[in-house]
From TrEMBL:
Protein name (record): Exported cytochrome C biogenesis-related protein
Domain Cytochrome C biogenesis protein transmembrane: 212-425
Major subcellular location class: membrane
Domain of life: Bacteria
Record membrane topology: Multi-pass membrane protein
Record localization: Membrane
PANTHER family registered for this protein in UniProt: THIOL:DISULFIDE INTERCHANGE PROTEIN DSBD
Amino acid sequence: MNKFIALAVLLFAILPLKAQVFDPSMAGGGGQFENPVNWEASFEKENDSIYIIKIKAELEGNWHLYSQKEVEMDIAPIPTQFTFNVEEEEYELIGETLEPEVEPVYDEVFEANITYFEEEAEFTQKIKVVNPEDTQVVVEVYYSVCDDKQCLPPETERFTLSLGSNKVTQGFTDLTIEDEDQSLAQQLDIKVQGWEGYETEKEESSYLSIFFLGFVGGLIALLTPCVFPMIPLTVSFFTKGAQTRSKGVTNAILYGFFIFLIYVLLSLPFHLLDSVNPELLNNISTNVTLNVIFFVIFIVFAFSFFGYYEITLPSSWGNKLDDKASSIGGIIGIFFMAVTLAIVSFSCTGPILGSLLGGSLSSDGGATLLSIGMGGFGLALALPFALFALFPNWLNSLPKSGGWLNSVKVVLGFIELALAFKFLSNADLVDHWGILKREVFLGIWIILGIGLTLYLFGVIRFPHDGPKQKISKARFGLGILSLLFVLYLIPGLTNTSYSNLKLLSGFPPPMFYSLYDKDTGGPMGLESYHDFEEGVKAAKEQGKPIIIDFTGWACVNCRKMEEQVWTDPEVYDILKNDYILISLYVDDKEELPEDKQFNYERPDGSIKKIKTVGDKWATFQTLNFKNNSQPFYVLLDSNFNLLNKPTGYTPKVSEYISWLENGLQKTEELAKK
């Protein structure tokens, strides 16, 4: 049993963190054009010389359009801009272009208050006209839109309003596609090979792992002083107190079922929150405030496990429910007995449930994963009551309660402290505080590991520890494992090849988030090329495949991917060592040389003028990959063979790692042909 305790405690260490990687959804791939904004223009006459121009945008779904107000920072959302042909002196603008009044929203990625519009927005501009009969007002709208997963490259919409004939024409009707335009567009077409087999590919995720991790948490809860002694007492009550053995077994099984049901029911309120605002739960892993709250909660849980105080629910709750169970009897009475167990054992199960809550809701599965994890937790608690009722002789094999139960709590306390700093690290990474760099984080874990080792060897003690006794072989063995873990962590404090610590991938901050200077000027410190041709040349020279990162300076979700997925050590190492990264910014406003500018016909037949570097890479994306959203990632070899299905916003780290590794495998297969 003691060996099992050690194994269960070690398994519990991964519970709240590894639960974060399971997601029931899959981020989108390629093969689609988004056009979520419908623009309309109109005008009305206020008097003989004053006209009001109205430009209205209707947005689909969760897409939003940014305000005209610029945010004073180097990297910010692209504001909506209006340009009028006033240089023809046929009219003059009266005041500024007006927009709807909405409250700004704080954006954690840009760290600023951002104003944007959803569903619809109407902009108005007053003009004073000299001769309405001969006046044409040409207005261009430069804009960009985003939703919760992607952004689109900036676009320009043009309207020509003929005041005399009361006519509105939309589009760049004065542009045509010449042979030179077609030639320049064709130069961007790299003839990607290997689209076959990727069009309908889709992964399915399993909830089995999160259920298993919840089950492990329930097993650990069984080994705490609040729950373990209840097993023989409760089973004996049902088997000896019933009129027949079959009745006692039925009651015990029913009791176990109600325990399982109660813990599943505890997750239902989170489903209500999820239905009101799905992003509330899905964004916990990136929400600085909530991560700090989890940090504080885990610290409180840890010192409770150390024995400095007890976290309990009001004793009156348990007493009242116990009275109800005794007075009512029957099935309802058994249900109240199960509720009583949940309440009186809260001081031990509460911290474990808190870990499960933090881990499940930090993932993109949200409340669904929590219910599955809670189901596993409840099942583990319920099984002993049913099994020992069916096989009462097994009770004799249970170890007696004693000091080892308190030792389990203290070990869990050290694990809770370690996990607390993981949540603080999440907040630190997102908000760039710089207080928990990789070496600082590992130093804290080393100190905690030393503390755990000293406790297991009996050097340090806690309030609820009994008289000193000879250290058992199991406890000594666990102490040796703790010491070996500390020795494994120590190289992580150095700036050497031994500091990688691959066995802990995903736990400490990434290697580039370090006290040592590792910045290279690329995204998240990675080396990247901003020109496709230069990147391909480097790929051929180094014999590596290519990852094209279609991104934008003002793309919120691009920053989320870089800060939340690319910061994972395993992802970072693959991008750094195994691929040539080419980051193409579709909103780069640097103008192309005049001989490289051209008119491009979109798939819907409209014409766009390719004038800037951003226009060029947006066109490059649509030509070759039939997609116009960002972030968008493509894996190619240097001969332009597609290595995997292109993907977009992919918050699930394990899925992104698998996607990258599949691309490397395909590279090896193509090299052998």
